[in-house]
Design goal:
single chain, 637 residues, Nitrilase/N-carbamoyl-D-aminoacid amidohydrolase, Rossmann fold, six-stranded mixed sheet, 20 helices, 38% helix, 18% strand, elongated
Amino acid sequence: MHDGFLKVAAATPSIQVANCPYNAQQIITIAKQAAEQQVSAIVFPELCLTGYTCGDLFFQQTLLASAMHSLEIILKELKQENIICIVGLPIMIDTNLYNCGAVCYHGNLLGIVPKTNLAEQDGANETRYFCTAPAYRQVKVCNQIVPFGTNIMFSCDTITEFQFGVEICNDVWGTEPPSNTLAKEGATVIFNLSASAEAVGRDAYRKTLVAGQSARLKCAYVYANAGQGESTMDYVYGGHDLIAENGTILAESPLFDTGFIYADIDLQLLRQERLHTSCWNNAANSCYQKVSFSLPIIPLELERVIQANPFLPPHMPDLPAHCETILNIQANGLKNRLTHIGCRHVVIGLSGGLDSTLALLAAVRAFEAMQLDTSGITAVSMPCFGTTSRTKTNARSLAIELGCTFREIDISASVLQHFQDIGQDSNQHDVTYENAQARERTQVLMDIANQLGGIVIGTGDLSEAALGWATYNGDHMSMYSINCDIPKTMVRYLVAHCININVTPLSDILMDILQTPVSPELLPPMGDTIAQQTEEIVGPYELHDFVLFYTLRYGFMPHKIFRLACLALGDKYNKETIKHWMIVFYRRFFAQQFKRSCTPDGPAVGSVSLSPRGGCLMPSDVKSSIWLEDAEAISVE
Protein backbone atom coordinates (compact mmCIF):
# COMPACT_ATOMS: atom_id res chain seq x y z
CA MET A 1 0.00 0.00 0.00
CA HIS A 2 1.59 3.26 -1.11
CA ASP A 3 -0.71 5.93 0.38
CA GLY A 4 1.58 8.75 -0.71
CA PHE A 5 4.52 7.84 1.51
CA LEU A 6 8.09 7.96 0.23
CA LYS A 7 11.30 7.26 2.09
CA VAL A 8 14.04 9.81 1.41
CA ALA A 9 17.53 10.27 2.81
CA ALA A 10 20.32 12.81 3.28
CA ALA A 11 23.90 11.57 3.56
CA THR A 12 27.31 12.81 4.64
CA PRO A 13 30.08 10.44 3.54
CA SER A 14 33.55 10.54 5.04
CA ILE A 15 35.59 11.83 2.11
CA GLN A 16 39.17 12.62 1.17
CA VAL A 17 39.81 15.95 -0.52
CA ALA A 18 40.58 15.49 -4.23
CA ASN A 19 40.39 11.67 -4.01
CA CYS A 20 37.43 11.19 -6.33
CA PRO A 21 37.63 7.36 -6.66
CA TYR A 22 37.64 6.98 -2.88
CA ASN A 23 34.76 9.42 -2.49
CA ALA A 24 32.75 7.62 -5.17
CA GLN A 25 33.07 4.35 -3.26
CA GLN A 26 31.85 6.02 -0.08
CA ILE A 27 28.82 7.36 -1.97
CA ILE A 28 28.09 3.98 -3.56
CA THR A 29 28.31 2.17 -0.21
CA ILE A 30 25.93 4.57 1.51
CA ALA A 31 23.50 4.58 -1.43
CA LYS A 32 23.30 0.77 -1.40
CA GLN A 33 22.76 0.76 2.36
CA ALA A 34 19.98 3.30 1.93
CA ALA A 35 18.37 1.24 -0.84
CA GLU A 36 18.26 -1.73 1.56
CA GLN A 37 16.23 0.48 3.91
CA GLN A 38 13.65 1.14 1.13
CA VAL A 39 14.97 4.67 0.51
CA SER A 40 13.79 5.89 -2.90
CA ALA A 41 15.91 9.06 -3.16
CA ILE A 42 19.12 10.17 -1.43
CA VAL A 43 21.04 13.43 -1.64
CA PHE A 44 24.75 13.92 -0.93
CA PRO A 45 26.65 17.14 -0.06
CA GLU A 46 27.83 19.87 -2.36
CA LEU A 47 30.88 18.88 -4.47
CA CYS A 48 31.17 15.66 -2.47
CA LEU A 49 32.92 13.78 -5.29
CA THR A 50 35.91 16.10 -5.10
CA GLY A 51 35.44 17.74 -1.74
CA TYR A 52 34.15 21.28 -1.37
CA THR A 53 37.46 22.61 -0.06
CA CYS A 54 39.66 21.88 -3.10
CA GLY A 55 40.36 25.56 -3.75
CA ASP A 56 42.43 26.20 -6.87
CA LEU A 57 42.56 22.48 -7.54
CA PHE A 58 39.27 23.08 -9.32
CA PHE A 59 41.41 24.52 -12.12
CA GLN A 60 43.18 21.18 -12.53
CA GLN A 61 42.10 19.07 -15.48
CA THR A 62 43.19 15.97 -13.59
CA LEU A 63 40.71 16.61 -10.80
CA LEU A 64 37.84 17.42 -13.18
CA ALA A 65 38.51 14.32 -15.27
CA SER A 66 38.68 12.13 -12.17
CA ALA A 67 35.37 13.54 -10.95
CA MET A 68 33.72 12.73 -14.26
CA HIS A 69 35.17 9.21 -14.32
CA SER A 70 33.98 8.67 -10.73
CA LEU A 71 30.48 9.79 -11.71
CA GLU A 72 30.51 7.09 -14.41
CA ILE A 73 31.44 4.52 -11.77
CA ILE A 74 28.55 5.64 -9.58
CA LEU A 75 26.14 5.32 -12.49
CA LYS A 76 27.41 1.82 -13.24
CA GLU A 77 27.48 0.56 -9.65
CA LEU A 78 24.00 1.82 -8.80
CA LYS A 79 22.37 0.81 -12.07
CA GLN A 80 20.46 -2.07 -10.50
CA GLU A 81 19.37 -0.14 -7.42
CA ASN A 82 15.90 1.42 -7.21
CA ILE A 83 17.23 4.63 -5.70
CA ILE A 84 17.67 8.13 -7.06
CA CYS A 85 21.11 9.41 -6.09
CA ILE A 86 21.90 13.13 -6.21
CA VAL A 87 25.65 13.78 -6.17
CA GLY A 88 27.63 17.01 -6.08
CA LEU A 89 30.59 17.58 -8.41
CA PRO A 90 32.21 20.21 -10.64
CA ILE A 91 31.33 19.88 -14.34
CA MET A 92 32.91 21.74 -17.22
CA ILE A 93 30.59 22.67 -20.06
CA ASP A 94 32.43 24.25 -23.01
CA THR A 95 34.80 26.70 -21.26
CA ASN A 96 32.70 27.21 -18.12
CA LEU A 97 32.93 25.34 -14.83
CA TYR A 98 29.76 24.77 -12.81
CA ASN A 99 29.05 23.63 -9.27
CA CYS A 100 26.47 20.92 -9.96
CA GLY A 101 24.11 18.35 -8.57
CA ALA A 102 23.89 15.26 -10.81
CA VAL A 103 20.64 13.30 -10.56
CA CYS A 104 21.43 9.61 -11.15
CA TYR A 105 18.98 6.76 -11.56
CA HIS A 106 19.30 3.25 -13.00
CA GLY A 107 22.60 4.09 -14.70
CA ASN A 108 21.24 7.24 -16.32
CA LEU A 109 21.69 10.93 -15.66
CA LEU A 110 18.16 12.31 -15.34
CA GLY A 111 19.53 15.82 -15.27
CA ILE A 112 22.22 18.14 -13.95
CA VAL A 113 21.36 21.22 -11.89
CA PRO A 114 24.05 23.91 -11.49
CA LYS A 115 24.20 26.24 -8.50
CA THR A 116 22.37 29.54 -8.86
CA ASN A 117 23.66 31.69 -6.00
CA LEU A 118 27.44 31.34 -5.73
CA ALA A 119 28.80 31.93 -2.23
CA GLU A 120 31.23 34.72 -1.42
CA GLN A 121 31.25 34.67 2.37
CA ASP A 122 32.75 32.69 5.26
CA GLY A 123 35.89 32.00 3.28
CA ALA A 124 34.01 30.82 0.19
CA ASN A 125 35.24 32.20 -3.11
CA GLU A 126 33.05 30.31 -5.56
CA THR A 127 32.99 32.95 -8.29
CA ARG A 128 36.75 32.41 -8.60
CA TYR A 129 36.01 28.94 -9.98
CA PHE A 130 32.40 28.60 -11.02
CA CYS A 131 29.97 30.31 -13.37
CA THR A 132 26.38 31.18 -12.57
CA ALA A 133 23.79 28.74 -13.80
CA PRO A 134 22.00 28.89 -17.15
CA ALA A 135 18.23 28.35 -17.21
CA TYR A 136 18.18 25.29 -19.47
CA ARG A 137 20.07 23.54 -22.22
CA GLN A 138 21.10 20.03 -23.17
CA VAL A 139 24.68 18.85 -22.77
CA LYS A 140 26.65 15.67 -23.24
CA VAL A 141 27.94 14.19 -19.98
CA CYS A 142 29.15 10.61 -19.45
CA ASN A 143 28.21 9.91 -23.08
CA GLN A 144 24.60 10.83 -22.39
CA ILE A 145 22.56 13.77 -23.67
CA VAL A 146 21.41 15.33 -20.42
CA PRO A 147 19.11 18.22 -19.41
CA PHE A 148 21.27 20.91 -17.80
CA GLY A 149 20.13 24.05 -15.98
CA THR A 150 18.08 25.46 -13.16
CA ASN A 151 14.65 25.17 -14.82
CA ILE A 152 14.34 21.41 -14.43
CA MET A 153 11.56 19.56 -12.63
CA PHE A 154 11.90 15.82 -12.03
CA SER A 155 8.51 14.12 -12.22
CA CYS A 156 7.64 10.54 -11.27
CA ASP A 157 5.19 8.75 -13.56
CA THR A 158 4.25 6.03 -11.09
CA ILE A 159 3.93 8.21 -7.97
CA THR A 160 2.27 11.32 -9.32
CA GLU A 161 2.67 13.25 -6.06
CA PHE A 162 6.45 12.92 -6.29
CA GLN A 163 7.92 15.83 -8.17
CA PHE A 164 11.23 17.22 -7.01
CA GLY A 165 13.68 19.99 -7.62
CA VAL A 166 17.32 20.51 -6.70
CA GLU A 167 19.10 23.52 -5.26
CA ILE A 168 22.59 23.85 -3.88
CA CYS A 169 23.62 25.23 -0.48
CA ASN A 170 23.64 29.01 -0.73
CA ASP A 171 20.62 28.90 -3.04
CA VAL A 172 18.31 28.52 -0.05
CA TRP A 173 20.08 31.22 1.97
CA GLY A 174 19.41 33.87 -0.68
CA THR A 175 16.50 36.27 -0.99
CA GLU A 176 15.00 34.39 -3.93
CA PRO A 177 15.72 30.67 -3.52
CA PRO A 178 15.12 28.54 -6.63
CA SER A 179 13.01 26.28 -4.42
CA ASN A 180 10.35 29.01 -4.24
CA THR A 181 9.60 28.68 -7.94
CA LEU A 182 10.20 24.95 -7.99
CA ALA A 183 7.57 24.43 -5.32
CA LYS A 184 5.08 26.70 -7.00
CA GLU A 185 5.58 24.78 -10.23
CA GLY A 186 4.70 21.55 -8.45
CA ALA A 187 7.78 20.23 -6.66
CA THR A 188 6.73 18.49 -3.46
CA VAL A 189 10.31 17.67 -2.48
CA ILE A 190 13.41 19.86 -2.60
CA PHE A 191 16.86 18.29 -2.34
CA ASN A 192 19.72 20.53 -1.24
CA LEU A 193 23.39 19.64 -1.64
CA SER A 194 25.24 21.82 0.83
CA ALA A 195 28.65 22.69 2.26
CA SER A 196 27.86 24.95 5.18
CA ALA A 197 30.72 25.51 7.63
CA GLU A 198 30.02 25.37 11.34
CA ALA A 199 30.04 28.35 13.66
CA VAL A 200 28.44 29.02 17.00
CA GLY A 201 24.66 28.98 16.60
CA ARG A 202 24.71 28.14 12.91
CA ASP A 203 23.25 24.67 13.37
CA ALA A 204 20.18 26.15 15.07
CA TYR A 205 19.81 28.77 12.34
CA ARG A 206 20.23 26.13 9.64
CA LYS A 207 17.55 24.00 11.25
CA THR A 208 15.17 26.95 11.48
CA LEU A 209 15.85 27.87 7.85
CA VAL A 210 15.19 24.37 6.52
CA ALA A 211 12.08 23.86 8.65
CA GLY A 212 10.80 27.32 7.71
CA GLN A 213 11.36 26.80 4.00
CA SER A 214 9.50 23.49 4.11
CA ALA A 215 6.62 25.18 5.96
CA ARG A 216 6.43 28.15 3.62
CA LEU A 217 6.57 26.00 0.49
CA LYS A 218 4.45 23.17 1.93
CA CYS A 219 7.07 20.70 0.79
CA ALA A 220 9.58 18.19 2.07
CA TYR A 221 13.10 19.61 2.27
CA VAL A 222 16.04 17.20 2.30
CA TYR A 223 19.35 18.84 3.20
CA ALA A 224 22.75 17.12 3.03
CA ASN A 225 25.77 18.94 4.44
CA ALA A 226 29.51 18.44 3.96
CA GLY A 227 31.39 16.98 6.88
CA GLN A 228 34.19 14.57 7.74
CA GLY A 229 37.20 14.75 5.42
CA GLU A 230 36.77 18.32 4.20
CA SER A 231 39.83 20.48 4.81
CA THR A 232 39.82 22.15 8.22
CA MET A 233 42.48 24.66 7.23
CA ASP A 234 40.10 27.54 7.98
CA TYR A 235 36.68 26.06 8.65
CA VAL A 236 35.11 22.92 10.06
CA TYR A 237 32.20 21.20 8.31
CA GLY A 238 29.79 19.43 10.64
CA GLY A 239 27.80 17.13 8.37
CA HIS A 240 24.52 18.53 9.69
CA ASP A 241 21.85 16.69 7.68
CA LEU A 242 18.15 17.55 7.93
CA ILE A 243 14.83 16.27 6.61
CA ALA A 244 11.83 18.54 7.11
CA GLU A 245 8.21 18.26 6.07
CA ASN A 246 5.76 21.17 6.16
CA GLY A 247 7.63 22.87 8.99
CA THR A 248 8.40 19.76 11.05
CA ILE A 249 11.88 18.28 11.34
CA LEU A 250 11.45 14.56 10.70
CA ALA A 251 15.11 13.58 10.98
CA GLU A 252 18.35 15.30 11.97
CA SER A 253 21.91 14.04 12.19
CA PRO A 254 24.18 14.94 15.09
CA LEU A 255 26.98 17.35 14.29
CA PHE A 256 30.28 15.84 13.15
CA ASP A 257 28.70 12.50 12.29
CA THR A 258 28.81 10.54 9.02
CA GLY A 259 26.42 8.17 7.30
CA PHE A 260 22.83 8.93 6.39
CA ILE A 261 19.49 9.82 7.92
CA TYR A 262 16.13 8.94 6.41
CA ALA A 263 12.45 9.59 6.94
CA ASP A 264 9.06 8.70 5.50
CA ILE A 265 7.57 11.80 3.94
CA ASP A 266 3.86 12.06 3.20
CA LEU A 267 3.42 13.44 -0.28
CA GLN A 268 -0.37 13.29 -0.11
CA LEU A 269 -0.30 15.42 3.02
CA LEU A 270 1.75 18.04 1.18
CA ARG A 271 -0.59 18.02 -1.82
CA GLN A 272 -3.60 18.42 0.47
CA GLU A 273 -1.94 21.33 2.27
CA ARG A 274 -1.48 23.08 -1.04
CA LEU A 275 -5.03 22.27 -2.08
CA HIS A 276 -6.26 24.33 0.86
CA THR A 277 -3.99 27.28 0.03
CA SER A 278 -5.34 29.51 -2.71
CA CYS A 279 -1.95 30.94 -3.73
CA TRP A 280 -0.93 27.55 -5.15
CA ASN A 281 -3.63 27.93 -7.78
CA ASN A 282 -1.87 31.02 -9.14
CA ALA A 283 1.21 29.31 -10.53
CA ALA A 284 1.77 30.50 -14.10
CA ASN A 285 2.76 28.18 -16.91
CA SER A 286 6.53 28.34 -17.03
CA CYS A 287 9.46 27.25 -19.14
CA TYR A 288 10.36 24.51 -16.67
CA GLN A 289 11.43 21.31 -18.36
CA LYS A 290 9.94 18.18 -16.82
CA VAL A 291 12.12 15.10 -16.71
CA SER A 292 10.06 11.94 -16.23
CA PHE A 293 11.11 8.78 -14.45
CA SER A 294 9.41 5.79 -12.84
CA LEU A 295 9.82 4.37 -9.35
CA PRO A 296 8.47 0.99 -8.31
CA ILE A 297 5.56 1.20 -5.87
CA ILE A 298 6.63 -0.94 -2.95
CA PRO A 299 4.78 -1.97 0.24
CA LEU A 300 6.69 0.52 2.35
CA GLU A 301 7.08 -0.39 6.00
CA LEU A 302 6.54 2.94 7.69
CA GLU A 303 8.95 4.05 10.38
CA ARG A 304 7.31 7.43 10.67
CA VAL A 305 6.17 8.45 14.14
CA ILE A 306 2.41 9.03 14.16
CA GLN A 307 0.95 10.91 17.12
CA ALA A 308 -1.86 9.14 18.91
CA ASN A 309 -3.48 12.53 19.47
CA PRO A 310 -2.85 14.71 16.41
CA PHE A 311 -4.62 17.66 18.04
CA LEU A 312 -1.76 18.00 20.52
CA PRO A 313 1.49 19.81 19.70
CA PRO A 314 4.21 17.42 18.46
CA HIS A 315 6.45 18.22 21.43
CA MET A 316 4.88 17.72 24.86
CA PRO A 317 6.92 20.51 26.50
CA ASP A 318 4.92 22.87 24.27
CA LEU A 319 1.60 21.62 25.68
CA PRO A 320 1.18 24.19 28.51
CA ALA A 321 1.65 27.11 26.10
CA HIS A 322 -0.69 25.37 23.64
CA CYS A 323 -3.36 25.07 26.34
CA GLU A 324 -2.92 28.70 27.38
CA THR A 325 -3.40 29.82 23.79
CA ILE A 326 -6.65 27.88 23.44
CA LEU A 327 -8.02 29.15 26.75
CA ASN A 328 -7.13 32.71 25.83
CA ILE A 329 -8.79 32.36 22.41
CA GLN A 330 -11.95 31.12 24.11
CA ALA A 331 -11.87 33.88 26.71
CA ASN A 332 -11.20 36.66 24.22
CA GLY A 333 -13.85 35.36 21.84
CA LEU A 334 -16.42 35.56 24.62
CA LYS A 335 -15.06 38.89 25.88
CA ASN A 336 -15.40 40.49 22.46
CA ARG A 337 -18.90 39.09 21.96
CA LEU A 338 -20.08 40.41 25.34
CA THR A 339 -18.47 43.79 24.70
CA HIS A 340 -20.07 44.02 21.26
CA ILE A 341 -23.60 43.33 22.50
CA GLY A 342 -23.16 45.26 25.74
CA CYS A 343 -23.81 42.23 27.93
CA ARG A 344 -22.53 41.58 31.46
CA HIS A 345 -24.24 38.27 32.24
CA VAL A 346 -23.82 34.75 30.91
CA VAL A 347 -25.65 31.54 31.77
CA ILE A 348 -24.05 28.09 31.65
CA GLY A 349 -25.64 24.72 32.22
CA LEU A 350 -23.15 23.11 34.61
CA SER A 351 -23.41 19.33 34.70
CA GLY A 352 -20.27 18.44 36.61
CA GLY A 353 -18.78 16.99 33.42
CA LEU A 354 -15.71 17.97 31.41
CA ASP A 355 -17.26 20.15 28.71
CA SER A 356 -19.32 22.43 30.93
CA THR A 357 -16.35 22.68 33.29
CA LEU A 358 -14.10 23.93 30.50
CA ALA A 359 -16.76 26.39 29.32
CA LEU A 360 -17.05 27.79 32.85
CA LEU A 361 -13.27 28.11 33.25
CA ALA A 362 -13.03 30.01 29.95
CA ALA A 363 -15.95 32.24 30.90
CA VAL A 364 -14.25 33.11 34.19
CA ARG A 365 -11.15 34.13 32.22
CA ALA A 366 -13.28 36.35 30.01
CA PHE A 367 -14.90 38.05 32.99
CA GLU A 368 -11.54 38.60 34.65
CA ALA A 369 -10.20 40.12 31.41
CA MET A 370 -13.22 42.44 31.37
CA GLN A 371 -12.71 43.21 35.07
CA LEU A 372 -16.24 41.98 35.79
CA ASP A 373 -17.28 40.18 38.95
CA THR A 374 -17.66 36.46 38.26
CA SER A 375 -21.02 36.56 40.03
CA GLY A 376 -22.26 37.70 36.61
CA ILE A 377 -21.78 34.11 35.49
CA THR A 378 -24.84 32.09 36.44
CA ALA A 379 -24.08 28.38 36.57
CA VAL A 380 -27.23 26.28 36.55
CA SER A 381 -27.34 22.66 37.69
CA MET A 382 -30.46 20.88 36.44
CA PRO A 383 -30.58 17.40 37.96
CA CYS A 384 -33.02 14.91 36.51
CA PHE A 385 -33.47 11.15 36.12
CA GLY A 386 -29.83 10.24 35.44
CA THR A 387 -27.97 12.75 37.60
CA THR A 388 -25.63 11.29 40.22
CA SER A 389 -24.65 12.94 43.47
CA ARG A 390 -21.01 13.01 42.30
CA THR A 391 -21.63 15.25 39.30
CA LYS A 392 -24.22 17.37 41.11
CA THR A 393 -21.82 17.99 44.01
CA ASN A 394 -18.93 18.80 41.68
CA ALA A 395 -21.05 21.30 39.73
CA ARG A 396 -22.05 23.13 42.90
CA SER A 397 -18.52 23.11 44.36
CA LEU A 398 -16.93 24.33 41.14
CA ALA A 399 -19.32 27.25 40.66
CA ILE A 400 -18.98 28.40 44.28
CA GLU A 401 -15.19 28.08 44.25
CA LEU A 402 -15.00 30.26 41.13
CA GLY A 403 -17.27 32.92 42.64
CA CYS A 404 -20.14 32.35 40.21
CA THR A 405 -23.84 32.59 40.95
CA PHE A 406 -25.09 29.05 41.40
CA ARG A 407 -28.63 27.84 40.89
CA GLU A 408 -29.94 24.30 41.20
CA ILE A 409 -33.20 23.61 39.41
CA ASP A 410 -34.52 20.07 39.46
CA ILE A 411 -36.29 19.54 36.13
CA SER A 412 -37.77 16.11 36.93
CA ALA A 413 -41.29 17.42 37.55
CA SER A 414 -41.23 19.57 34.40
CA VAL A 415 -40.13 16.64 32.24
CA LEU A 416 -42.74 14.31 33.77
CA GLN A 417 -45.41 16.93 33.08
CA HIS A 418 -44.14 17.12 29.50
CA PHE A 419 -44.35 13.33 29.22
CA GLN A 420 -47.95 13.50 30.39
CA ASP A 421 -48.71 16.27 27.87
CA ILE A 422 -47.38 14.32 24.90
CA GLY A 423 -48.39 10.85 26.06
CA GLN A 424 -44.88 9.51 26.72
CA ASP A 425 -44.52 6.54 29.08
CA SER A 426 -41.94 7.59 31.68
CA ASN A 427 -40.85 3.95 32.01
CA GLN A 428 -39.94 3.78 28.32
CA HIS A 429 -36.30 4.87 28.26
CA ASP A 430 -36.10 5.69 24.56
CA VAL A 431 -34.72 8.65 22.62
CA THR A 432 -37.76 10.77 23.54
CA TYR A 433 -37.13 10.04 27.22
CA GLU A 434 -33.52 11.23 26.85
CA ASN A 435 -34.00 14.20 24.55
CA ALA A 436 -36.89 15.68 26.51
CA GLN A 437 -34.47 16.25 29.39
CA ALA A 438 -31.89 17.95 27.16
CA ARG A 439 -34.51 20.23 25.59
CA GLU A 440 -36.00 21.14 28.96
CA ARG A 441 -32.56 22.13 30.20
CA THR A 442 -32.03 24.36 27.17
CA GLN A 443 -35.42 26.03 27.75
CA VAL A 444 -34.51 26.73 31.36
CA LEU A 445 -31.16 28.24 30.39
CA MET A 446 -32.64 30.41 27.66
CA ASP A 447 -35.36 31.77 29.92
CA ILE A 448 -32.94 32.53 32.76
CA ALA A 449 -30.73 34.35 30.25
CA ASN A 450 -33.77 36.43 29.28
CA GLN A 451 -34.43 37.22 32.93
CA LEU A 452 -30.86 38.42 33.41
CA GLY A 453 -30.38 40.12 30.06
CA GLY A 454 -27.59 37.65 29.36
CA ILE A 455 -26.64 34.98 26.86
CA VAL A 456 -26.41 31.20 27.09
CA ILE A 457 -22.94 29.75 26.67
CA GLY A 458 -22.86 26.45 24.80
CA THR A 459 -20.73 23.65 26.20
CA GLY A 460 -20.67 21.08 23.37
CA ASP A 461 -17.29 20.17 21.85
CA LEU A 462 -15.93 19.39 18.39
CA SER A 463 -16.05 15.61 18.84
CA GLU A 464 -19.70 15.65 19.84
CA ALA A 465 -20.52 17.83 16.85
CA ALA A 466 -18.66 15.45 14.50
CA LEU A 467 -20.61 12.45 15.81
CA GLY A 468 -23.90 14.32 16.16
CA TRP A 469 -23.88 13.41 19.86
CA ALA A 470 -26.18 16.26 20.82
CA THR A 471 -29.93 16.73 21.07
CA TYR A 472 -31.25 18.87 18.24
CA ASN A 473 -32.47 22.12 19.75
CA GLY A 474 -31.31 20.86 23.12
CA ASP A 475 -27.66 21.02 24.12
CA HIS A 476 -27.11 21.51 20.39
CA MET A 477 -28.26 25.14 20.79
CA SER A 478 -26.88 28.18 22.61
CA MET A 479 -26.05 31.84 21.96
CA TYR A 480 -22.28 31.42 21.88
CA SER A 481 -20.60 28.02 21.65
CA ILE A 482 -17.30 28.44 23.43
CA ASN A 483 -16.01 24.83 23.06
CA CYS A 484 -17.14 24.28 19.48
CA ASP A 485 -13.68 23.77 17.96
CA ILE A 486 -12.11 21.76 20.77
CA PRO A 487 -12.08 17.94 20.48
CA LYS A 488 -12.93 15.85 23.52
CA THR A 489 -9.36 14.59 23.89
CA MET A 490 -8.12 18.18 24.02
CA VAL A 491 -10.80 19.14 26.56
CA ARG A 492 -9.18 16.68 28.95
CA TYR A 493 -5.76 18.28 28.55
CA LEU A 494 -7.19 21.76 29.01
CA VAL A 495 -8.89 20.84 32.27
CA ALA A 496 -5.71 19.06 33.41
CA HIS A 497 -3.76 22.22 32.56
CA CYS A 498 -6.11 24.25 34.75
CA ILE A 499 -5.37 21.82 37.57
CA ASN A 500 -1.65 22.46 37.17
CA ILE A 501 -1.99 26.24 37.32
CA ASN A 502 -4.39 26.33 40.27
CA VAL A 503 -4.20 25.30 43.89
CA THR A 504 -6.57 23.31 46.05
CA PRO A 505 -9.48 23.13 46.60
CA LEU A 506 -10.22 24.05 42.95
CA SER A 507 -7.64 21.53 41.75
CA ASP A 508 -9.25 18.77 43.80
CA ILE A 509 -12.64 19.49 42.26
CA LEU A 510 -11.22 19.57 38.74
CA MET A 511 -9.35 16.31 39.33
CA ASP A 512 -12.53 14.51 40.33
CA ILE A 513 -14.32 15.91 37.29
CA LEU A 514 -11.45 14.72 35.10
CA GLN A 515 -11.82 11.22 36.54
CA THR A 516 -15.60 11.09 36.07
CA PRO A 517 -16.77 8.91 33.12
CA VAL A 518 -18.07 10.91 30.16
CA SER A 519 -21.85 10.71 30.17
CA PRO A 520 -24.93 12.80 29.32
CA GLU A 521 -26.59 11.26 32.42
CA LEU A 522 -29.97 10.88 30.77
CA LEU A 523 -30.72 7.33 31.98
CA PRO A 524 -31.36 6.38 35.61
CA PRO A 525 -28.14 5.47 37.46
CA MET A 526 -27.39 2.10 38.99
CA GLY A 527 -27.47 3.12 42.62
CA ASP A 528 -25.30 6.21 42.46
CA THR A 529 -23.14 4.93 39.62
CA ILE A 530 -23.42 6.47 36.15
CA ALA A 531 -25.26 3.99 33.94
CA GLN A 532 -24.83 5.67 30.56
CA GLN A 533 -21.20 5.96 29.47
CA THR A 534 -20.77 7.74 26.15
CA GLU A 535 -17.69 5.90 24.90
CA GLU A 536 -19.40 2.54 25.33
CA ILE A 537 -22.14 3.77 23.00
CA VAL A 538 -20.41 5.81 20.28
CA GLY A 539 -16.85 4.55 20.74
CA PRO A 540 -13.53 5.82 22.13
CA TYR A 541 -13.11 9.54 21.60
CA GLU A 542 -9.37 9.19 20.96
CA LEU A 543 -10.13 6.98 17.94
CA HIS A 544 -12.89 9.29 16.67
CA ASP A 545 -10.71 12.38 17.14
CA PHE A 546 -7.89 10.69 15.23
CA VAL A 547 -10.21 9.90 12.30
CA LEU A 548 -11.79 13.36 12.49
CA PHE A 549 -8.42 15.10 12.28
CA TYR A 550 -7.15 13.24 9.22
CA THR A 551 -10.53 13.36 7.49
CA LEU A 552 -11.00 17.11 7.84
CA ARG A 553 -7.42 18.37 8.00
CA TYR A 554 -6.00 16.40 5.10
CA GLY A 555 -8.94 14.69 3.38
CA PHE A 556 -7.24 11.29 3.60
CA MET A 557 -9.07 8.18 2.44
CA PRO A 558 -10.34 5.79 5.14
CA HIS A 559 -7.82 3.03 4.33
CA LYS A 560 -4.92 5.44 4.82
CA ILE A 561 -6.34 6.75 8.10
CA PHE A 562 -6.74 3.13 9.23
CA ARG A 563 -3.07 2.49 8.47
CA LEU A 564 -2.03 5.56 10.46
CA ALA A 565 -4.37 4.67 13.33
CA CYS A 566 -2.86 1.20 13.58
CA LEU A 567 0.59 2.76 13.86
CA ALA A 568 -0.48 5.35 16.42
CA LEU A 569 -3.00 3.39 18.51
CA GLY A 570 -2.36 -0.24 17.60
CA ASP A 571 -0.87 -0.97 21.01
CA LYS A 572 -4.22 -0.06 22.60
CA TYR A 573 -6.81 -1.23 20.05
CA ASN A 574 -6.73 -4.20 17.70
CA LYS A 575 -7.38 -3.75 13.99
CA GLU A 576 -10.94 -5.05 14.19
CA THR A 577 -11.80 -2.48 16.86
CA ILE A 578 -10.23 0.38 14.92
CA LYS A 579 -12.09 -0.58 11.75
CA HIS A 580 -15.41 -0.98 13.60
CA TRP A 581 -15.34 2.47 15.17
CA MET A 582 -14.07 4.08 11.97
CA ILE A 583 -17.17 2.81 10.18
CA VAL A 584 -19.31 4.17 13.02
CA PHE A 585 -17.56 7.52 12.65
CA TYR A 586 -18.24 7.82 8.92
CA ARG A 587 -21.89 6.80 9.31
CA ARG A 588 -22.52 9.31 12.08
CA PHE A 589 -20.38 12.10 10.66
CA PHE A 590 -22.19 12.37 7.35
CA ALA A 591 -25.67 11.59 8.70
CA GLN A 592 -25.48 14.32 11.36
CA GLN A 593 -24.40 17.24 9.19
CA PHE A 594 -27.90 18.76 9.45
CA LYS A 595 -27.21 19.50 13.11
CA ARG A 596 -23.97 21.30 12.29
CA SER A 597 -25.56 23.35 9.50
CA CYS A 598 -27.35 25.54 12.05
CA THR A 599 -24.95 25.70 14.98
CA PRO A 600 -24.29 28.92 16.94
CA ASP A 601 -21.25 31.16 16.63
CA GLY A 602 -18.09 30.10 18.40
CA PRO A 603 -14.34 30.71 18.22
CA ALA A 604 -12.04 28.64 16.00
CA VAL A 605 -8.96 27.49 17.88
CA GLY A 606 -7.13 25.21 15.44
CA SER A 607 -6.88 23.98 11.87
CA VAL A 608 -9.89 21.66 12.16
CA SER A 609 -13.32 23.25 12.41
CA LEU A 610 -16.91 22.18 11.77
CA SER A 611 -18.34 25.67 11.58
CA PRO A 612 -20.91 25.85 8.76
CA ARG A 613 -19.69 29.38 8.04
CA GLY A 614 -16.21 28.43 6.85
CA GLY A 615 -14.81 25.49 8.78
CA CYS A 616 -16.70 22.75 6.95
CA LEU A 617 -19.00 23.70 4.10
CA MET A 618 -20.94 20.51 3.41
CA PRO A 619 -24.52 19.77 2.34
CA SER A 620 -26.76 18.21 4.97
CA ASP A 621 -27.94 15.49 2.59
CA VAL A 622 -24.54 14.24 1.44
CA LYS A 623 -24.17 10.47 0.89
CA SER A 624 -21.47 8.62 2.81
CA SER A 625 -21.38 5.50 0.63
CA ILE A 626 -17.94 6.02 -0.96
CA TRP A 627 -16.29 6.56 2.43
CA LEU A 628 -18.05 3.56 3.91
CA GLU A 629 -17.12 1.36 0.94
CA ASP A 630 -13.46 2.23 1.38
CA ALA A 631 -13.62 1.68 5.16
CA GLU A 632 -15.54 -1.61 4.90
CA ALA A 633 -13.04 -2.94 2.34
CA ILE A 634 -10.14 -2.57 4.81
CA SER A 635 -8.42 -5.86 5.53
CA VAL A 636 -7.66 -6.55 9.19
CA GLU A 637 -5.53 -9.63 8.51
